[in-house]
Amino acid sequence: MSDERRSGIGRVPRIVALGGGHGLYATLSAVRRLSSDVTAVVTVADDGGSSGRLRNELGVIPPGDLRMALAALAAREPRVQSWTDAVQHRFGGTGALAGHSVGNLILAGLTEVLGDPVEALDTVARLLEVEGRVLPMSPVALQIEADVVGLESDPRVSRCIRGQVAVATTPGKVRRVRLLPANPPACPDALQAIDAADVVVLGPGSWFTSVIPHVLVPELLDTMMRSPARKVLILNLAPELGETAGFSTERHLHVLCQHAPDFRVDHVVVDSASVPAGPERDDVCRAAKQLGAQVVYADVAEEGTHKHHAGKLAAVLERLAERETAEARLVEVHGGNDGRGNASCGNDSGGNDNTAERTVGGRESASWQ
């Protein structure tokens, strides 16, 4: 949906994307094709690398994932690209600056000068001519704590692991994660963006350290649950070593439900190749019902990789946004309930084939489960 293709109320759709790291970068690369009104809400629990050093030495929120989100939304004009390249540049060598990203240092310095991490982000966003905003999930740096099994001789015994890097790299299976401090505050501007959103997108990304943390901030979860926006959950293309090794697609959904039992989304986007047609899709459908969601199967991967293709993902999200507009018009004309929030495993045509795939021109496109 280009900026000329307005939403049903005469403007570009307001899109909020939540996540962190490379997963959020992929989502932002897709949604920027659909709207100029995009807000990224970014996790702030990273404790490794340059981000970890800066949060420990200066007490700032970890800037790395925030920097990547700014780069994903930066203008593509040549006059801006050199700034984006500089912000993303990482120093080499063996000295004190080795491993630090220029953008991380800029954000840390601006936070000290301006006294506000959000104002620092807005300042860099203006430099990169970002159409939208990048905001932290919380104004305070958070820590992730996890219960991990498989580290003791008794497989039933869990061990408490603290820190994002430790959780992501410790052998064993993560059962549950928590945030420290417990019940942290949410960024007020992020809450306002979700309140005003037409579409809210969560994922993909590291499931326990980039996706689930968003539903562990009470104010953030409450606002997402109250928001009338269409909510879309994008699943990873494959399990992630360390965090979700051995997880099925269905298991990802169960884990999210365990951490936020009352959370509801409208659609779960799953790459077609990651879940073959058959009983496994029935399992995914049943798991999606716990979230009140329909499952959308589509080809969204870069060929030969486990990365999402920005163009393919944008096409699926555009279709969802257009369907939202069409349903809103029907409700306005006919009145009554639009039926959102009711899980479905059927296809759009009302047939009974739960695993039927639609094809266009010989290529697979989004099908509605």
Automatic annotation (TrEMBL):
Polar residues bias locations: 344-354
SUPFAM superfamilies per the UniProt record, alphabetical: CofD-like (SSF142338)
Region (Disordered): 332-369
Pfam families: CofD (PF01933)
GO BP field: regulation of cell shape
Any one GO molecular function term: LPPG:FO 2-phospho-L-lactate transferase activity
InterPro entries attached to this UniProt entry: CofD, CofD-like_dom_sf, Gluconeogen_factor
UniProt entry tagged with the keyword Cytoplasm: yes
Example of a GO cellular component annotation carried by this entry: cytoplasm
Keywords: Cytoplasm
Keyword Cytoplasm: yes
Subcellular location field: Cytoplasm
Function in brief: Required for morphogenesis under gluconeogenic growth conditions.
Recorded family membership: Belongs to the gluconeogenesis factor family.
Stated name of the protein: Putative gluconeogenesis factor
Originating organism: Rhodococcus spongiicola
Species lineage: Bacteria, Bacillati, Actinomycetota, Actinomycetes, Mycobacteriales
